[in-house]
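Changelog entry

Holo records now carry the ligand SMILES as an explicit input line rather than a separate metadata file. Below, a converted record for flavin-adenine dinucleotide, shown in the new format.
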Amino acid sequence: MDDLIEFRARVRAWLAERYPEIGPQKDDERGDTIARAPEGHVAMVQGAITLQKALYAAGFWATRLPQEYGGQGLTRAHDDIVAEELMRFDCPSLRPLGIGMGLAMPTILGAAGEEQKRRFLPKLVAADEVWCQLFSEPDAGSDLVSLRCKAMRDGDTWVITGQKVWSSFASDAHYGMLLARTDPNSDKPHSGITMFILPMDRKGVTVVPLVDIAGGHHFNEVFLEEVVLRDDEIIGEVNRGWQVANGTLSGERSGYLGGSGKGRRRRQALAAAADAGKLHDAVVRDRIVDVAARERILELLAERIHAGAALGGNPAAGSLVKVYAGNLEQQSSELVIDLRGASGIAWEAGHPDADYAAHALNGSRQSRIAGGTHEIQRNLMGERILGLPREPK
Ligand SMILES: Cc1cc2nc3c(=O)[nH]c(=O)nc-3n(C[C@H](O)[C@H](O)[C@H](O)COP(=O)(O)OP(=O)(O)OC[C@H]3O[C@@H](n4cnc5c(N)ncnc54)[C@H](O)[C@@H]3O)c2cc1C
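Structure line, unchanged by the conversion:
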């Protein structure tokens, strides 16, 4: 306990030397800032890299990761402290590197070989290498198992041809977790898929940026034309990539809390109500309390799932968090827009509160899709938690 108190004091002092302390509302704006121009996107990613590098050098990053893979070998509580302290200061958002820390790191830890762990994890956590996730295809999102990107054996290499889409931060990434079909003739579609580590600068890889509903620039299409990969660029075993990907996805869902900060939605609603002079309006108070209560439930649910205490450690429990978080994101962003009134839908350019509220509303739609849509999560919960009959194929 003393150790945790001392650790928090050190993290806070380190941040205070570099960044001004800020109020919660400013923090919220920063946490979910999106870039509406390509150069803004580049600056956002660069800001994240610079901060993660500095945190790592100071010994405040990857605190839970074992030391042999570049981490500090500490506990989840240390990780939480760093996340909490980051929220107090006006520093860049680390969200652009979330796929590396939140998806690639646990996937490599759980399924990659020892050499791969030692090669990739230290550079990932030090922000020397950025990762992206190359799962979805134009005709394989919800029905990911029908993916068509193909990997053909050629001597002792694999030749990959296909297309990926909605690949967040692929234009910034050095490596991608790539799912490709290595056995087109397998009896079951999921048993012929392999997960590869794709170096994004490998010959034959073309990344084409897309703009999302909220005007952000993190999405991309990725085209693969006869890209040559080696056996040592496979995570796990050949034709067992579906199992590896399921581990990635269940981590993605349970980690999906929908944006920055504990209590963020409550604070945003309170700020919007104060600006609108409606803090004493009984109906508004009721709506804010509902958001605040649900937000706390979400945090507790996520903690229970991470501790393996909810639903006996059933991996489908992540779907529960994802649906709850997505619904809450929509509910709270609608509340803020209602409170901002006309200024939430038509505002002077550069008005930060209204701009943020409109972005949050658009962004809340994404949260019901990313990592698998709500309909798919409900199917998973029905089949894997409630034991209902499987959906007819
Ligand atoms: C913000 C964001 C970031 C993303 N980042 C990445 C990324 O980095 N890498 C990556 O690989 N992908 C990424 N994705 C893609 C995401 O995983 C897919 O969009 C998602 O899985 C849905 O697939 P789809 O878009 O093809 O929709 P579809 O699968 O075409 O679904 C269309 C609609 O049909 C419904 N539907 C489909 N099948 C069923 C069914 N069996 N039962 C009931 N309803 C059904 C869906 O719920 C949905 O409403 C991202 C998406 C978003 C929004």
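Spot-checked after migration. The chain has a mean pLDDT of 89. The radius of gyration is 21 Å.
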